[in-house]
TrEMBL record:
SUPFAM superfamilies, alphabetized: GroES-like (SSF50129), NAD(P)-binding Rossmann-fold domains (SSF51735)
Gene3D superfamilies documented for this protein: Medium-chain alcohol dehydrogenases, catalytic domain, NAD(P)-binding Rossmann-like Domain
UniProt family annotation: Belongs to the zinc-containing alcohol dehydrogenase family. Quinone oxidoreductase subfamily.
UniProt-listed InterPro entries: ADH-like_C, ADH-like_N, ADH_Zn_typ-1, ER, GroES-like_sf, NAD(P)-bd_dom_sf, Zinc-ADH_QOR/CCCR
Pfam family, one: ADH_zinc_N
Entry keyword set: Metal-binding, NADP, Oxidoreductase, Zinc
GO molecular function: oxidoreductase activity; zinc ion binding
Domain Enoyl reductase (ER): 10-328
Protein name: Zinc-type alcohol dehydrogenase-like protein
The organism of origin for this protein: Sulfitobacter pontiacus
Length: 331
């Protein structure tokens, strides 16, 4: 089958069309005919630095498509079902005609979105959901009279995190944005307040009269760390998703802060007992999309997955200026 992969770590032009075997389906697997994918920062990081273990590596994690085959122990899906999911970092990716994925991390595609649009939701929705309810240990409806600061609010995770926080908790949401277009976007997503992460965050929040109990550090955490420690409430909660070279964790001690890593691949990597929690939350997200409670975060869309389109999408990710999500159709 056709796929797009790379044979040596490097720039975007290392991506090329390749021929690989159709995936073998394990007992709990679905074989999905991929109809839409999205591009995430993790794709770019892996392509640039991770050498393939074999002849080539196929990237891509988000996907939406149609179930073409089911494993012997699959109970929740049948051939022909329309699905969406965020994949498993330890397995071959979704930039291919067919993809094998464990049914426990697969949700039913929102009926109101086509495959390409639906592919923009899973990875960021899982990340945001796990931040709110696993890392921060919030309950639905909780957080009244408290606030959440989202650093990097216009990115893929920030865009859906703002919406989930407003829809499912009582938190007031403050998002950071540094351009007029990103400020407009985070307000569209539902942010109550917007501050500029290029300026003095602590001073801006003090001017708003806000002392966040929760901080979602989605980008440049090492740069913003001193400000986060300064502005957060005592016994506050910090969750981060990026890879800072170093953090002065001792600085969190005087306020007795909690620091959490969020990595949405953990459940599938370790096949945790609650691995199917991702299926449940994806189904909730799909229902909220279909009900109009959540909106799509897609801003850049290509109709087909071609080498040229995927290379261009990687370059856009590297620019650091993508708002929301980028999606492409299938091969």
């Amino acid at each position: 089958m056709k796929a797009i992969g790379y044979s040596a770590a490097g720039p975007a032009d290392t991506l090329d069309m390749i021929e690989i075997d159709r995936p073998e389906v394990g007992p709990r697997d679905l074989l999905v005919a991929v109809k839409g994918i999205s591009v995430n920062p993790v794709d770019v990081k892996l392509r640039a630095a991770a050498q393939p273990e074999g002849a080539a590596r196929v990237l891509g994690f988000d996907a939406a498509g149609v179930v073409a085959e089911v494993g012997a122990s699959v109970t929740g899906f049948k051939i022909g079902d329309e699905v969406f999911y965020a994949g498993d970092v330890t397995r071959a990716g979704t930039n291919a005609e067919f993809h094998a994925v464990d049914e426990r991390i697969v949700g039913r595609k929102p009926a109101s979105l086509d495959f390409t649009e639906a592919a923009g939701l899973p990875l960021t929705s899982i990340t945001a959901w796990e931040m709110l309810f696993d890392a921060f240990r919030l309950t639905e409806g909780g957080g009244a009279e408290q606030s959440l600061l989202v650093i990097g609010g216009a990115g893929g995770v920030g865009s859906i995190l703002i919406q989930l926080a407003k829809a499912l908790t009582g938190l007031s949401v403050i998002a950071t944005a540094s351009r007029h277009e990103t400020e407009d976007w985070v307000r569209k997503m539902g942010a109550d307040h917007v501050v500029d992460h290029r300026g003095d965050l602590a001073a801006q929040l003090a001017e708003l009269g806000q002392t966040p109990s929760y901080v979602a550090a989605l980008t440049a955490t090492d740069q913003h760390w001193p400000a986060i420690i300064d502005l957060i409430a005592p016994r506050g909660q910090i969750a981060l998703i990026d890879d800072p070279e170093a953090l002065d964790i001792k600085a969190a001690k005087p306020k007795a802060l909690s620091v959490h890593w969020e990595f949405m691949f953990t459940r599938s990597m370790f096949e945790t007992d609650d691995m199917d929690a991702q299926q449940d939350l994806l189904n909730r997200v799909a229902a909220m999309i279909d009900a109009g409670t959540l909106q799509s975060t897609v801003t850049e869309r290509g109709e087909a997955l071609t080498v040229e389109a995927l290379r261009a999408a990687h370059l856009r990710q590297e620019s650091g200026r993508v708002i929301g999500k980028q999606v492409l159709g299938g091969l």
